């Protein structure tokens, strides 16, 4: 499975809390945790200061409480994620290309897509993409989309088209079936 991973597993950067203007970067590769910082100051004693860097193997990082405590600008969530990556807990699904994920999503129910959209910002973006909603509309109208409908969908958005036209029709069909079954 490791062959599916890119060399860099995670990377983030941030500016230190005020009044500091220092800049920090955290990079997690398949083997190392790299912590870099740049001193940015108008004070003469810091002008021209070289950037700093610490590189640790994953096991060394897991055992270095001092470095784990030096992460005020990224926060506990990033630290927990870094510890998980260093411990070998990699989310392979999150690393698949968008095109492949969209193909997988096309086989899921809209309810499951709604649940998946709540798991991460990446899945929220994918589950709300025009491609997913275009597939939903085409799935509900048996690929009988006219040019006018497609132009309207391109203007209004496929998700809006689905909820304005097809979702209501689906609800009415379900209600009619329930009425037929109950005998009313």
Automatic annotation (TrEMBL):
GO biological process per UniProt: SCF-dependent proteasomal ubiquitin-dependent protein catabolic process
Q: Which residues form the F-box domain?
A: 90-136
Q: What GO cellular component entries does it have? A: SCF ubiquitin ligase complex
Q: Which SMART domains match?
A: FBOX (SM00256)
Q: Out of the domains of life, which is the source?
A: Eukaryota
Q: Which InterPro entries match?
A: F-box-like_dom_sf, F-box_dom, SCF_F-box/WD-repeat
Protein name listed in UniProt: F-box protein 36a
Species the sequence originates in: Cyprinus carpio (Common carp)
Classification of source organism: Eukaryota, Metazoa, Chordata, Craniata, Vertebrata
